[in-house]
Amino acid sequence: MNWSTPRALMLLLGTLLMAGTVQAGDPAAGRDAAGQCVACHGLDGIARQPDAGNLAGQNAMYLRNQLEAFRSGKRRHPQMNVIAKELSDEEIADLAAWYSAIELEVKLPDLP
Q1: What CATH number has the domain bearing residue 29?
Q2: pLDDT in tens, 3-18
């Protein structure tokens, strides 16, 4: 595609504008909604179950994408598909905002 044509530039501009309209989410509302997540993902977003991921400190866009994939069935997990199916776009954005707001400290191992 020739990106110097007006049509291509409009397509690019439209894509960038759509990307900017992603709902930011409310971390406080996400914290309140996270009660159903605690059993597997822990109160602090650090997984308690071996087949659950750590959510704390993850990128909000990544978290939104994964919850939307569970909701649609594109990503499969027995519990997550059931739970995510009931989430609204706003609840997904709030949960993503909450878990992405959790700060982690990282310590690399001392290797010889």
Answers
A1: 1.10.760.10
A2: 556 676 566 555 544 4
